[in-house]
Structure formats: structure tokens, C-alpha cells
Amino acid sequence: MDTGEEFGPWLARQLKLAGKTQAELAQELELTRAAISAWITGRSTPRPTVMADIAKALGTDVGTVHTRTTDTQAGLPITWYHRPGYPDGGRDLGNAAAFAFDADVQVLARETCQNSLDERLTENGRPVRVRYTLHELTGEALAAFREAILWNDLFPHYSAVSESAGNQKVGRVVDAGVRDMYEKGRLVLLRVDDYNASGLIGDDYADGKFAAVVRRQLESLKSGPVAGGSYGLGKATLWATSALGLVLINSTLSVPHEGRTQRRVIGRLELPWREVGGESYAGPAWFGRPDPDSPGARVARSWWADEETVARLHLTRESDEPGTSFLIVGAHDVASLEEDGSGADDESMDDGDTRDISRMHKRLVKALGRDFWAAMTGGGSRLPLLEVSVRALRNGQVVVPEQKVDPSAEQPARTRALRAHYEGATVDRLLEAGQVAARGVPLKLPLSGGARGTLGTHQAVLLVTDLANDAENGDGAQNQVHSLRGNRMTVKTAGVPNLPLGTNPFQAVLLVGEAAGEAAPFAKEAEEFLRAAEPPEHDRWGQTDELTLRWSPSAYRRINALTTEVNSAVRELVARPKRGASEGGVALRKALTVKTKPKAKAPSGPVVPVLDGLDATVGDDGEWQITAEVSIPRGDEIVPMVPVAQLDVRSGGRPTLDWAELVAVEGCEVEDGVLRFAPGTRRAKFRGRTDVTSHPVRTMLTRLVLELRAGKGE
User: Fold this and answer.
1) Per-residue b/e over 549-586, b at no fewer than 16 CB within 10 Å?
2) How many whole angstroms separate alpha carbon 229 and alpha carbon 130?
3) Of 57, 464, 557, 702, whose CB is crowded by the most CB atoms within 10 A?
4) How far apart are the C-alpha atoms of 266 and 273, rounded to whole Å?
5) How do residues 502-538 score in pLDDT, each as one tens digit?
């Protein structure tokens, strides 16, 4: 139950919103100006009999004056404020930050859930609870929602964007979103609620979490050292997932602002530059109450809404627990089309498929289980950091019941391994099915500022377990290492190269920084170092601008060394122990007669080598340095192969890089960029170094793809 704001600050704000002075209110109430001043400064409060007169003067009811849990509706009404065009004629044709991510609900889940983890209130020891609600509106429900967001005021701006849609990408996306709503009579809302989080605290304009999310770009104000985000880009996924570029926000604050905590509401719209009614507009717009302190009272700021308003905006929160609700209006999931394996024809694969709430529900559950299984896992004295659920509605009716994401169902083997670690049930070596082996792995932290030497050695924790049964194949690809740090979100997923033949399938987890335990040496320093080594997607550790500026251009090599140590430890832990001559039932083996199969005949035609292992790093000059291993099938004739280095890009063809050096290490020869193999060779290795002058962008901003293509034999 909201206790209400102090009378003085509340009255002062209502007078400002209503455009009244203290003297004018005193005149209406037939009191002295000194009496009004005493109320506002908190030296006294009005008698209950005067409350009715104050309500009449402010154009509201007596209950609102008594409870003061919301602003009066007098004065300036809720409206949209569109930022005017730049006086120098500059144009922004979209928010560049949104292009850092795809319109993908799985990317949205990763970024928003990470932000909620970062804002978890830690004092009470409870997890942050995050709920994703997909809600499709049609008919009267859609009409009521459009009325609540003042759609008629927005429509001219959307029309202007649609008219110029052929000229730029954001306009085409927005135009498709508006057409889908009108042609199919539906609108998908995707709401992300978190509880036991800090909420958007702080002033509307000054430094704080509210301004960082609602007013600014590329600003990250995180609550703790183990935070996942650092670029201020994650919030852009909210607007990127909206085909209409519109997000509404309702926040319950952990720290009061203006004496209030509940139902702080604001909306933000991201559109490209446009002309409406002969006036130009720069791009963004805000939905709120006009700020009387702004020039002409035009700029919209957040307001304290009543329960009826948040209900009409589909922003009602289930409790007064601190946290924030983000409502993505016109949610779509373009990336879901890539996963469609139905073989549907082109006509059926239209834009409408990107708004299938049942499919979006499944993809959300899958992504949350894959990326946050560790944050949802507890054991021993360690409690889960996170609880997540997903549900789908249509006009308020349940389409897919609320499903709580269960880490033991989504990632059974890894969850079992982490629980064993928390409960102290690990072993030194795997001897039986279902065991979990633990091993310390060193990360040597560099000195900052480019100084030579080592700050100290952090001991990461490696956990390895074999798959106890077929049910544990749900973890995804086998023989993978999931790496994570303090907030326990999976940052890096990688396979282990050069595993011994006959290795049993396994899964591995690497706990680094504070995920390794608060008692681990240099845990906070490892957190800071690895956080700086993550790109905006937070899906790997490697060379970044921040790592170079704060440490050195070669600091990433410490991470490469950690990877080498991890892979070596995994291979040792999963290797089958060799048996001596006295082990394994010698008498039984002598009593058995085993028929040997004739040796397989080598293929008569040419065989094609395949890439079997790759180790890639970035050199001091920004070039890619690779060492590759090649596996060759049995055969008398081996096809020559050409190594091709390319850059992985979001769209279009992959740019091909030139080789500055390509040398054979073993089992092959290099002639004019072509690998040739002697007959009977089964394995080969070569090294390469790319030509930096052929790189279209800086190496630290790219990923490398290496292919072996059949070369000419002559």
C-alpha cells in the first residue's frame, strides 16, 4: 500500500502543474500567503476541513489530496513531446545504438535479463524475479490501448515515416509494423517485469538510472562490480524489438523520488527524422506530463500515474516490490524465421510469422535456459540469483500458461555440475558416470596502464562431468565449456579441440571472477579485467578498445593463456585411464576368440581433407594469426586445399582477407597459397597470418571464419 507523499512537496508540484502561484491559491482559499508557504515548507499541514477547498482549487477529489499517491489531473495533460529538428539541418535517420542488435527476442532476453541481474537488490539475499508476457491485442482491446497511448496524435508522425520508408531501413521497419497492425487487426505487446530490482531511480534529467535509460544513449550506470553490461547498449534492444519503435515504462523505485516510489510512468518513441505539418522533428519523442520548468512547458517528463491509467496502458505490476516494467509495443521477432524448418512456401513466410506469440514464447524459454541456467541454480549455501517465467495472452486470455524456466530441464548436466560444486560433492578425477570433477585453472592478471608484469594470479574453477544418461543431452552441443563470471550469465561457449579418441561425451563449466567464489584470490580484479574484454554482445572474451586502453594491446593474450589451460585441464580430466596388463580380466580375454575384420579398402577416388581444429589470436599489428589442424580420410589421392580467411558479418557476403604468410608445419606443403598433402597422410597442420591492409575494419571488432576449399591440382 503506497503511504503517499509528504504534503508540502506534493502541493508544490501540483501548483506548478496547474500553473498556479502560492498567492493565487491563498486568494482562492481566503487564507494568507504565509499559510500556504508554511504547508509547502513542511512547517504545518492544512486542517481536514480545508482539504476539500484545496481539492476544489486543484480540480481534483478530496481523496487524492488526502492520500497523495498520484498527481492531480489539473493543468498540463499527459501528451507526446517530439524533439524538434536540429537548427543546423542535421538529420538522424534512426538510433544507431539499435543497430548493434538484431530484432530477436532471444537477444532481447539476454540483454534485459542481464540488466535485471545487474540491478538485483542484494541486501535481502533473494533472487531477482523476471517475467516475460507476450500479449496479442485485437478488436476492442486494441482500440482501447491505442486510445490510451494517444494514437491519433502519433499517427501523423508514423504516416510521415511511411512516406519516406523506401529511403532508409528504420522507416521500412516502422511502415511494416503499422501496416501489420491495420491489415491484420492485431498488435503484439511484450512486457518485461522485474521484481527485487532497484527500479529507475534518479531525476528525470540529472545523472541517474532513469536518465541513463530514458534520456540518454551509450551510458551505463550499473549497481555493482559484477555487472554484465558496460556499454549502455543493452537497453537499445527494447526499441529494436519494437517494429513501432515504442516502449512504455512503469517503475517502482527502491529509493523514493519526489517522496514517491510507485507508478513512475514514461514512454519513449524512436523514429527517424520526419516532417509533420511543416515542422521537422529530430527523431525521439517522450510520452508524459509537460514539464512546467521547460521552455514553453513542452518537454514531457515522467509522472506518477494512478492505477486506472497503468491498467489502460497494460503496465500494472503484481506487487509494490521495487523493479521496472518495460512494455514493447509492436514486438516482432525477425530472427525466428531463420529457425523455421517447416518448409513453408514463400507466400506463407510473410512478416506475420515474426509476430507468432507461441513461437516467441518457445524461443524466449530456450534462450533464457541457455544463457542464464547458472544464475537460476543454487546449492549448499549459494542461492539462485534469478527466477524467470514466460507466458502468452490474447486479449487477456491465456494462450500459453506461465512457464517457469527450470535450469535442470534446460541444462541438466551443467546444472548438476554446478550444484555439486556448491555442495562440495566434486572429485579430482572422473571414475564413475555422473561424477563432477573440479580443477583450479590460473588466470594471470596483467598490470594496468601498459606496465609489464603480473598483478596476481586468479584461480578460476573448472567443472567437468560426463553425461550420466541420454536425458542429459538437453544441454545442446556436447563437449562444450560454458564460461561465466559474477552475475552467472553464460558469456562464452566453446568446444575443446584435440580430444582423445573414444572420449565419453561431457559438459564443462568455467567459473571466473566472483563466480569462482568471493574468497578466490583477485576475484574482483578478474571481474574488472574480463568485463573490459567483452564486446557489446557479451558473448566472448578477447581484444577490445577498453582492454587496450586500460591495460595494453597484448592484454588479451592472458585470456588466450587461460583458454589453453582450460582445454588442457579438460583433456586430462576426460581422458580414459590406461589399464595395466593385470587389469581388466586377462583370463577372460585369453578365453575369447575374436575374429578380426579385414582392413577396409581405401577409397579409389580422391579424398577431401577437413578442418579439424583452429587456434586464432590477434597479433600486435592487428592481424589474425592462426594455427589450423587438418584431418584427412584414408585414400591414395588427396585433393589440394586452399585456406580462405573471411570476416563474419551481420549481413551480406563475408569479406575475404589476404594472407601475409602461409606456412606448413607438418604433413603438408604450401605452394602459391595451396595446401598439398603426400599420399597416406592422415593429419596435417599449418600456420597463417593475414594481411592487415586487406582488413575492411579493425580486427578487434570482427570475428574470423576459416574455410578449406578444394584447390586446383595442377
Assistant:
1) ebbbbbbbbbbbebbebbbebbeebbeeeeeeeeeeee
2) 17
3) 464
4) 21
5) 788 899 999 999 999 878 999 999 999 998 998 877 7
